[in-house]
């Protein structure tokens, strides 16, 4: 009876994970990322900083993650208790079977196109209601291709970039966009094309990784005298 109890409860955990994966996918996460994050939150392990921003910056995903974290803590207590009482007859198997049945129905319903469409509509509504522009995950907003990155470059005193106008640096042949220049305590965003790059500037860039790497090498090379 104890082994059956454990198997039924692990089935509940598996169904909760799969239902959460469906919910995460409906908010735009890829399946592999969604499953990894669901397992990570449920077990409180491996919740990576990079991908965790995709969860923390999204109001709907935050709610799903809170449920998974609480369910994971509750599950740990239940499993420890079950192991302690493994020989006990009072394991309430009928209730566990009912819970498995309900979760199985929810899981199957969540896979249907009609339910997915309804949930997606609800999630979109929650996004419009709760998500401020400042909360938009930068990875989802800007990383459109696998080679896209957002990074910064500090301009050295003898850098080849010193004295260049921004339009010269981000010429049309380059897939690079300058988001803003940090000059001391001032962030320059307006009329960037009119700016001339100075030593000590920190350039915040978005674009193709390989093009930005080339630009970084130019920054390291000394300006000819």
UniProtKB/TrEMBL annotation:
Keywords: Membrane, Transmembrane, Transmembrane helix
One Pfam family, short name: TrkA_C
Biological process annotations from GO: potassium ion transport
Origin superkingdom: Bacteria
GO molecular function: monoatomic cation transmembrane transporter activity
Membrane-spanning intervals of the chain: 6-26, 64-87, 93-110
Keyword Membrane among UniProt keywords: yes
Gene3D superfamilies: Regulator of K+ conductance, C-terminal domain
Protein's recorded name: RCK C-terminal domain-containing protein
Limits of the RCK C-terminal domain: 138-221
Residues in the signal sequence: none
């Amino acid at each position: 009876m104890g082994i059956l109890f454990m198997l039924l409860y692990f089935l509940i955990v598996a169904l909760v994970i799969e239902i959460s994966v469906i919910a995460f996918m409906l908010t735009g996460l890829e399946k592999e990322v969604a499953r990894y994050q669901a397992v990570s939150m449920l077990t409180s392990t491996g919740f990576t900083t990079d991908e965790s921003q995709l969860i923390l910056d999204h109001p709907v995903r935050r709610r799903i993650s809170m449920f998974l974290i609480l369910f994971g803590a509750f599950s740990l207590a239940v499993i420890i208790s079950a192991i302690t009482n493994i020989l006990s007859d009072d394991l309430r198997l009928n209730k566990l079977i009912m819970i498995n049945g309900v979760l199985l129905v929810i899981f199957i319903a969540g896979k249907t196109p009609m339910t997915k469409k309804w949930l997606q509509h609800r999630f979109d509504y929650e996004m419009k209601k709760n998500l401020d522009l400042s909360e938009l995950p930068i990875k989802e907003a800007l990383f459109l291709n696998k080679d896209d990155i957002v990074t910064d470059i500090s301009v050295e005193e003898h850098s080849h970039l010193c004295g260049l106008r921004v339009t010269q640096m981000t010429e049309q042949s380059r897939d690079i966009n300058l988001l803003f220049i940090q000059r001391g305590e001032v962030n320059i965003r307006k009329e960037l094309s009119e700016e001339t790059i100075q030593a000590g500037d920190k350039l915040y860039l978005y674009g193709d990784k390989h093009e930005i790497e080339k630009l970084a090498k130019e920054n390291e090379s000394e300006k000819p005298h």
